[in-house]
Amino acid sequence: MNGFCFTVDENKCVHCGRCVSSCSSVILSLDEAGLPRMKDGVDGVVGWDGCYRCQHCLAVCPAGAISIFGKDPRDSLLPEEMATPRQLEALMRNRRACRRYQDREVPREEIDQMLQLLENVPTGSNMQTLGFNVVYRKAEMDKFRKLVREEAFRLAERGIYPGNFSKADWQKQLDWEPGRNPGDMFFVNAPHILVIHSQKDRGQWRTDPVLAAAWFDLICACRGLGSIIMSYPVGALSHMPELEKLLRIPENGYYSLILGFGYPEYPYARGVQREGIAQIRELTF
Ligand SMILES: Cc1cc2nc3c(=O)[nH]c(=O)nc-3n(C[C@H](O)[C@H](O)[C@H](O)COP(=O)(O)O)c2cc1C
């Protein structure tokens, strides 16, 4: 018995071996009867200790014969329900950074549904150490944006500007603010923010939160919500340790972006038309 509850329905198994060949931990093999079994552990390296918990064995099985972690394969979403290439293209071409929001909140249940989806974001070594700190209530966000803004102006008087900004950069932001994001150059008046953090030194801790941010941006877009990926407020908060603490990033936590989201003030009627300047280079060897 193992703690992973790996079971095979022997009546369903078609002995195709896909579970074995898709197991990146290399801990499965077929026994004499052609049924998948865990390989013997060697010094605790192989065996269930090595399981990445990726569930590929459950997902790849054409017969739905494998269960792991107590999951019933019949509860999985099926590939037939995946977006078509055209649908994905439309999503990617029509998503836009949103800097104009309605003065209302996204329901907590909807935010939670979106965050649950982020459990599916790939993470290095399938570590899944991501944490999601979210401002659900606009009134709370309004308090935070005010605190950050006031502190930024206090710091600017002392010659300290967001991130690596020079005085000229700061002045530019001040000049742009009224037209670009009236009253809130940092969080662009977003009613909610999401801070995705990872655990330093575990897996791909610098990259994982960035991937998750990109996914969240798309999740918002397909639900008709506006969203924006922001690094500017992170640069500002880097000079405000007391305010940064309010984001409740754990001691060894890492984040490099803040996402703003909410109902957009107006929808965009069409996608932009990129210039086709992506530099694509064939590699041959
Ligand atoms: C890593 C990253 C950081 C960004 N930081 C900010 C930011 O701090 N403030 C902001 O208004 N926009 C920020 N943006 C949004 C970009 O400015 C925006 O994506 C760009 O203008 C293109 O617009 P589009 O996303 O609608 O195509 C950021 C985008 C990325 C990818």
Return the string of H and E elements: EHEEHEHHEHHEHEHHEE
Q: Which of globular, elongated, flat, extended, rod-shaped describes the shape? A: elongated
Mean pLDDT, all residues: 94
How large is the radius of gyration?
Answer: 24 Å
Features:
single chain, about 280 residues, alpha+beta, Alpha-Beta Plaits, NADH Oxidase, five-stranded antiparallel beta sheet, two-stranded antiparallel sheet, about 30% helix, about 10% strand, binds flavin mononucleotide
Would you write up a description of this structure?
It is a single chain. By secondary structure, the protein is α+β, with helices and mostly antiparallel strands. The protein folds into 2 domains: 7-79, 2-Layer Sandwich (Alpha-Beta Plaits); 88-262, NADH Oxidase, CATH 3.40.109. The protein is 31% helix and 12% strand. It has 9 helices and 9 strands. The strands form 3 sheets. Strands 5, 6, 7, 8 and 9 form a 5-stranded antiparallel β-sheet that branches. A two-stranded antiparallel sheet has the order 1-4. Bound molecules: flavin mononucleotide. Flavin mononucleotide binds next to strand 7.
